[in-house]
Design brief:
alpha+beta; 6-stranded mixed sheet; 2 helices
């Protein structure tokens, strides 16, 4: 069974495709949006996810599972969900977990890890 990796460096791949399943590494907002609030970072992160899913031959309607990491869940949960709820098409909600986590850079407020069907 072949494994396809996209945007790979020594440490990680941004996309791994195995059979008909697509795995995305944790995605964050584009560099230009990292100084913004949680809603803006969520919007930017979802845009990055859409680009990678398209490159892998799938889209947001085929999400299986999403894990969302928030720097401050109490402060940013509502803002993140307000963007998420408008982004996700009705009837396509994946299995999802949202947790508070210490993220790798202090300016990152939102990170998402995705599994999708192709």
């Amino acid at each position: 069974m072949s494994v396809q990796r996209l945007h790979t460096n020594r440490r990680m791949s941004q996309v791994v495709i195995h059979q008909n399943t697509v795995y995305l590494a944790g995605q964050v907002a584009a560099d230009d949006d990292l100084s913004a609030d949680a809603a803006t970072q969520t919007r930017s992160t979802l845009n990055e996810i859409e680009k990678l899913l398209a490159e892998a031959g799938t889209d947001k309607t085929r999400l299986l599972s999403v894990t969302i990491y928030l720097k401050d869940i109490e402060r940013d949960f509502e803002a993140m969900n307000s963007v998420w709820d408008t982004w996700l098409p009705e009837g396509t909600a994946p299995a999802r977990a949202t947790v508070e986590a210490r993220l790798c850079e202090p300016e990152i407020l939102v990170e998402m890890s995705v599994v999708a069907a192709r």
